[in-house]
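User: Second chain of the day. Same drill as before.
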Amino acid sequence: YQGLTRSSAFILCFNDLTPSLLDISMEDNNPSKEFQSLVGPITVPSSTLPAIGDKLRYSWAYGQGTFDMVTAPGFDLIWDFSGLTADENLTEEYLPPSEGVHVARFPAANLMTRNAAGEERYYIVSSSGLRLIGYTKNTLFGEPFTVVYDYTWKGTYPDPGLNERYTPLNFFDSYARHASILEGYQFSELPPALRNTYLAAGLTTTDSIRLRYSYDNYYAVNANGTLTIPGQNGQYEVLRMNTTLYSEKRVDAHVIPLGWLDITDITMQYFPASIPSLGIDTTGTHVFFNDVTKEEIARVILDSQGRPHDVRYKNNSPVPCFDPDLVNATLNGDPISGGTYLASQTITSAGRIANGTTVQFSAGGTITLQPNFLAETGSIFSADVITCPVNAAAPSMVREQIQPQLSFQSKPTLPTEIPKLLIGDSRLKVYTNSSAASIKIGYTLTDPGPVWLAVADTKGVLLKVLEETDRKEAGHYSLAWKLPENYSGKLNFYLKTKEGVVWKR
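Assistant: Same format as last time:
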């Protein structure tokens, strides 16, 4: 066994663990070098999961991914990411969910994060991993609008969400997760730009829209080795987990009298900012975990073609004592928000600290409390001038991880077979004959299939179903319809086929 490499020895131990193999490695309970070489890949334990109070520091290197970062599966591999340069540094602070604006939607959450824009992410953390159960965004298709994406379906979905981590994590582990989102909004609630564009596209009798998203994520731990990233002490023993995410994201409109119609293509046409968040896509990641560090060591983002693009990695630069955005701070809030304010030079305040609020001022130079400064009875206030030691690190807090016990009765499924609304389509034509008070309707079928042809007023009230059949051969068809007596006003004509719905006014 002297010539065994670490990787081949691990395979031998896994498949053919014999007493003779153990006997040659142990003498007087002292492992020999040969036995130490048989140690397998690391196991990533639940102690590496984030907890309330943790601040995980990351750097982003945009567009710096290379193909040598996404090697084939294997043992004892070596990855060198030390040449990356940080385009952005971010800190993920894990908070109690009670501090979230939308916590009422996620009563099962026991952890959350909030970014600089105020967007929130809600998690369930337990001994088995970290699972995202919902998040918020400040825009809808590029327009200002708060959207809550709820994997729990308001608490009715069993075992909801997508895992960001699994623990304990071992080589050869594999997992699969399905998740879906169905969020609806009244048409009147939408941003004006969305409403006006949809109205111009003919959705004049729409009363609501919904977001219909479906995800299937596959995870496989298929490599181990040593990864080097920028910064001090940047070499880590790692497990690599590959993920592949298949997503289908649609938007539907409820149009009277037609029901739900798929308006994804229309939305992408008129709102280019929606393109990354709609349609069918396949993306992937290669994620590297260490068995001690809470941060992911690195995450390589792959596009739909499997090409590496962006890289997020653990930020190993020294943690500053002071907030880099606070140098000479003036804090005159009425009231001052609770928290710790760390200014590298001075803090001056004439603000008010309200009852029940905790505020701490720390500065590297001086702290000046002006005559109007007030700390109300029941508040907690402290101020101190500090010296920042080199490479000082911020303390982290560890809290007990709790797995909430929930009972779900049924698993809802997303609606399927939603017809598309087709705009600017020439397969339906309408001709008026004012002298005969009649209308000629012509339509074209490119393929055999069902046909539903109807007319409604501009409020969506169905006046007449002109034709309804389960099957009609491909071809050109026409029919005449006589206007109701004394009718005045505009009409909407609808043709529904297996390709979708076409309308003409």
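The helical segments are 6-15, 19-23, 33-36, 192-200, 264-270.

User: Great, on to the next one.
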